[in-house]
């Protein structure tokens, strides 16, 4: 009975995993995307002035340092005469007619200005070094915009750029071709009047881990108050403990070698572990009260060379439909699509650091891991709450939008057989006696 049950749960979890692989979108954030709008709001004698807006609609995927990069290919002989709020990374060949132009590249790439940019070069929503917050955490900072003055076109003409690309900051985003969209409308004069731009182009960029084929960077470990067993991260979650042949070292009890390409694509020194993940999320079931239960959630950084600023952790657990209180992290519940279909469910909670307290997940040091931790108090829905069968463990955890490797249900710390064990021991002697009695009867009496 028991092995069959475990085998079935393992199978079900594997099915779940496989179906997620097949999905081209994240079921926990089905509407997430980065939308790029080009709003032409002024014609000039030989071109136009446009505002380019990058809006991050991802609930929990942000763009971290070194920031976004947006690119496209002009289809005519467009030249960017001037720009504010961002820069093109290359000027290109402007030698003949446009010596003072900002960029004459046919495939310009744009990056944000840094926060110290001069006032004359700034626009609204610019100059954050390309950082974009996620939608669920910080909407005002989930938008970036800049202005371009485009020349070298006949009066009143404009041609859709092609092949838009978005890096946030690494690869993984695929953008739809720019297409005409209903002109962007904005309100002016205390919202008593609406004005619209002349022309709007839109491109939608979506992220997929599978297009980058990235190795996991995060794993989950579990423990409980009722079982001394600690379930570690699955072995080799992100990589296996390397042999001595590698060039870089990892730091730990036995100095062996490894490296991990961090956000800046630099090789970082990792702590030697059996999972070799830079980030570990630990879920500890701490207390079981009458109406509530308490979890301790800890996020640890095993990397000696990376601080994660504005980190976030997403946890899926059926209990988050009830009220939850997290003490040392900021949190919100977000709606996701149930695996079965289009029904919205409320069982996903997003956690992030408190301002001026733990928004930074610091790098590990020789003495300790960088870590942030909180206790979470959850109310119980008596009809569903149970410590049995791993129900109280999370279904899925993401760190900064990347899925973390979960232990298999077979490895979860089990409830001690407290309820059944005494019954067994109480039952066993009579059974044994009966057996002995039968054997004695058989042997001695020859029955
Ligand atoms: C992009 O995100 C916005 C906001 O969630 C949503 O309204 C829109 O439908 C999305 N677009 C696509 C193509 O997914
Ligand atoms: C720059 O462009 C002009 C005309 O478009 C061309 O004549 C010139 O050779 C180019 N210079 C270089 C260095 O490519
Ligand atoms: C900022 O503006 C000044 C004056 O318009 C200009 O000379 C300079 O190149 C601009 N800097 C950037 C980074 O755009
Ligand atoms: C756009 O990308 C496609 C595929 O990568 C390429 O074949 C095409 O030449 C590109 N178009 C332009 C104008 O660069
Ligand atoms: C991480 O933050 C600590 C403390 O603010 C700082 O000393 C360290 O240099 C930072 N590390 C990196 C890689 O930025
Ligand atoms: C929690 O997050 C919200 C939304 O980003 C923010 O307005 C608030 O200041 C945060 N609270 C703390 C204590 O950091």
From TrEMBL:
Stretches assigned to the COBRA C-terminal domain: 217-413
Keyword field: Glycoprotein, Signal
Gene Ontology CC entries for this record: plasma membrane
BP-aspect Gene Ontology terms: cellulose microfibril organization; plant-type cell wall cellulose biosynthetic process
Residues spanning the signal sequence: 1-24
Superkingdom of the source species: Eukaryota
InterPro entries: COB_C, COBRA_pln
Keyword Glycoprotein on entry: yes
UniProt-recorded name of the protein: COBRA-like protein
Organism field: Cinnamomum micranthum f. kanehirae
Lineage: Eukaryota, Viridiplantae, Streptophyta, Embryophyta, Tracheophyta
